[in-house]
Amino acid sequence: MKTTIFCFSGTGNSYYAATAIAEQLGDTTVRMTSSLLDAENIEMTERVGFLFPTYKGFPPNQMKDFIQEVFSKQDLEPIRYLFMITTRYKFQAYSMVAMEVLLREAGCAHSYANHIVMPDGYVPLVPVPTEEKESELYAQADRSIRLIVEDIQNETIKLAGKRPFSRLALNYLMGFIHSSSKLFARKFTVTDACTSCKICYRMCPSANITMVEGKPVFGDNCEGCLGCYHRCPEDAIQLTTRAHEGRYRNKRSGYNMEYRI
């Protein structure tokens, strides 16, 4: 059965999971939402998946926008089985509840929901994992991925669970979280270590970075993924707020996606 996975990834965790699931399922295409925001016609397959990180308890703003503004306008009739997987570290809070509502309002009910525990790179709150911890979490993730693939192949039904105060969270908290995330880049500063390599500009999933006189300038459409912060080869992008030391390079993910040249 042909499968399409719509994926958003900032530091590579969700990309790793999406590509691993695709390889094990076979006949599967991974499509990054950052490249589809202007798409008019997307051919749907019998099996469709959404793979995304949990940010502050919710799906990324871009995933919400993709579902509401792009996915909902497609011909969804071919879809027989829809799964949604989130990558997260400690908690997923309302991410699955929010996705269930977004997809239902788009005209498509989900069949399966699950999560994969992976390293966290949100340094304002948690330390960068040690190599030992990263290896441990990736081994755990690989085991979870194998079980998830079996479930998908068997078309297992596993719906997102209910959570208290869901409607209040979706109506008020999600909007606040997404609005504040858009402004997250105001916390970045760029040091003289910058070599104008433009990696941050090319890889930003929300095209929130422009280059001015060879230096990155950040706008107000940030996802808060910290991909630019972690992937800067010179550590020239710094946070002006308190943050744990270290960078989550996540080399084992194979994620080197670039959206602009």
Topology readout:
Elements: E1 3-7, H1 13-25, E2 28-32, E3 47-53, H2 61-69, E4 81-88, H3 95-106, E5 112-117, H4 131-153, H5 166-182, E6 188-190, H6 199-203, E7 209-212, E8 215-218, H7 227-231, E9 237-239
Helix pairs in contact: 1-4
Characterise the protein shown here.
The protein folds into 2 domains: 167 residues, 3-Layer(aba) Sandwich (Rossmann fold); 70 residues, Alpha-Beta Plaits (2-Layer Sandwich), CATH 3.30.70. Helices cover 32% and strands 17% of the residues. The protein is built from 7 helices and 9 strands, in the order βαββαβαβααβαββαβ. Strands 2-1-3-4-5 form a 5-stranded parallel sheet, with helices on both faces. Strands 6-9 form a two-stranded antiparallel ribbon. A two-stranded antiparallel sheet has the order 7-8. Helix 2 links the parallel strand 3 and strand 4. Helix 1 packs parallel to helix 4. The protein is globular, with a radius of gyration of 18 Å. The mean pLDDT is 96.
